[in-house]
Amino acid sequence: MGTAGGQAALMWALVILLVPLSRVFSSNFPSAAMVNSTIMLGLFLAIVAFGQGLVILSGGIDLSVPAAIALGAFFTGFFANEGFPTPLAVGLGLLISSLVGLINGIIVCSTNFPPFIVTLAVGTIGAALLLGVSQGQPGQNSPPELVALFNGELNVLGAAPSLVMLIAVLMLGYLIQSRTTFGRSVYAIGNSMKAARIAGIRVKFSTFLVYWVAGIAYGLAGVLLLGYGSGSDLNIGNSWLLPSIAVVVVGGSSISGGTGNYSGTVAAALLITLLSIDISAAGFPEGVKQILYGAIVLLALLLSKIGGGRR
Amino acid sequence: MNLQESTGLHRRLAPRAKAPYIAAAVFFVLYGLLIVVSPVAGSAFLINNFVVLMSPLAIAAVGTTLILVLGGFDLSVAGTISLANVVAATAMQRSPENIWLIALGVIAMGALIGMINGLLVSILNLPSLGVTLATNIVLAGIALVIMPAPGGRVPVEFTSVLTGMLGSVPFAAIVLLGLGAFWVALMKTRTGMSIAAIGGDATAAKLSGIPVRRVSTVAYVIAGMLYSVAGLYLCGLTATGSPAAGSSFLLTAFTAAALGLVSFKGGRGSGVAAIFGAGTILVIPKFLFALGIADFWVGACQGLIVLIALTIPSIGRLTRHAARKDAGRNTRGSQLAASTEGLEKQKLHI
């Protein structure tokens, strides 16, 4: 815990340091627009990484992220366009996207199958079903209320809604992960499933809940992405899987589970978002961004080893 | 102690000896059903087509199985295939006179990738899932930088050999036969047996004098080379390159291994069975298509097949577990020790 907290503080320091340093990548930086984009894209990444972080904390890994995001975005748009009121459409979208996590949870907690294969398989099924259901109308328009969250029209007490949401997500995520019985049992399970069982933790139920909550988080990110992009397509979730894992590991969580801290994850989400905006502004191709993500994950793994991590 | 261990290992290996036969039976029954539904699938032309089509996956799945036997997970299969595919397509278009030299170079590149994975996992003792996930991302990124969109042209001298016939036998069938023979031979060598021993119990393997680091690294090198060959074969199949060529292999390679009744806990698995597993994965969509089921449900079926395939080994384990429980009621202590060991191992790999 101590090292994870330390890494979180380091991440926040790096975020603050990197804003002025962006000038290296583009002469237009730093700018208000850049900070604004960082907060918006960082918000999506922070929400996705909350789910991924819980799964990794429990000792698993979740590759069903893209499918759950796409389901959340598609069905929210679908129901809104069918004339449902927006809150109901969002609710239904979340419900359907959470099915991915629900099924992941049921399978992982009741069997000893490797989580990465289970989530990959369930995600593939979800994506294929979405492709089948959406025949002929792959894109969905966003309801105007969701668009208004991100186009600068709305402000909450003078602040952009995305900033307010980011702070809310940070606080809520931190509380759930570090201050609830559920969150504490996930730490225990990630450290030692056997010890957690002996300590009287309902290991199966908590494991199930981890994947379900994660699925809801991905769906929520999908709903917000629908508003951000003013619509959705079937590939809306594809670009979020790798960053979500990178962010969790960079934020100080062990990829083997048991340690980590959501504040570090959010800081890493902002850091990686900022870096990727910088890289795009500097004109590097998409592949370079991927290489960077991979290198960062490797580096974080190495650092956790050198930094006296237990594993 | 040593004797006990070796007999223990033997007992654990023994039930799996049936795996290739089961996997082959499943495949041949399905292919037989396909011929019943659509008789043209039995023609020599389509059989050759099918063997060519399943070759890249079969080759990759043998690599995946090898690392699973070692007790690790190698997710770099997708990135390595993409990179090999892209590098081969680009280089072969540029200098079509050196295609076989280029193929060799690409295989060497795979060996290098495997070596990096192996060293990171075995020397630095990092979790294989994390390491290979990261290298997979990096490799896919490099592939994307080399070739941002599908392109390149592979000379017909290369494709015609890989997809053609050698006499009256499909060249791909010879490759797969060779691959199966390679697996059987490898598992009879000291290295092969050490790989299985490490996967069965890394601590015991170390204590009995197996050079764990060297053997692990060699396994990753072999796996990397196999992925590269799979990427090359994909070039031969499509006559072009794509930076996303390997991405679908992540799921299918592990599915093929699962259909080959591999143990995801390490120590047991058969590359020969995985080859038939690859055939099973590819025959199912054809079967569904012949039945008139729409294309986009195939993905859903593939996912379902993985989940079903995963249950097969555990059913076997369940029955054996029940038998052992009956046999050794008074060795509760050793059972508990064994189960803790299993848990610790599980944590190590996930």
TrEMBL record, chain B:
Compartments it resides in: Cell membrane
Region (Disordered) location: 326-350
Molecular function terms from GO: transmembrane transporter activity
InterPro entries: ABC_transp_permease
Domain of life: Bacteria
Membrane topology: Multi-pass membrane protein
Residue intervals passing through the bilayer: 21-41, 47-68, 99-121, 128-149, 161-186, 218-239, 245-264, 271-290, 296-315
Keyword list, A-Z: Cell inner membrane, Cell membrane, Membrane, Transmembrane, Transmembrane helix, Transport
Cellular compartments per GO CC: plasma membrane
Cited Pfam families: BPD_transp_2
Main location group: membrane
Listed PANTHER family: ABC TRANSPORTER PERMEASE PROTEIN YPHD-RELATED-RELATED (PTHR32196), AUTOINDUCER 2 IMPORT SYSTEM PERMEASE PROTEIN LSRD (PTHR32196:SF71)
Full protein name: Autoinducer 2 import system permease protein LsrD
Highest classification ranks of the organism: Bacteria, Bacillati, Actinomycetota, Actinomycetes, Micrococcales
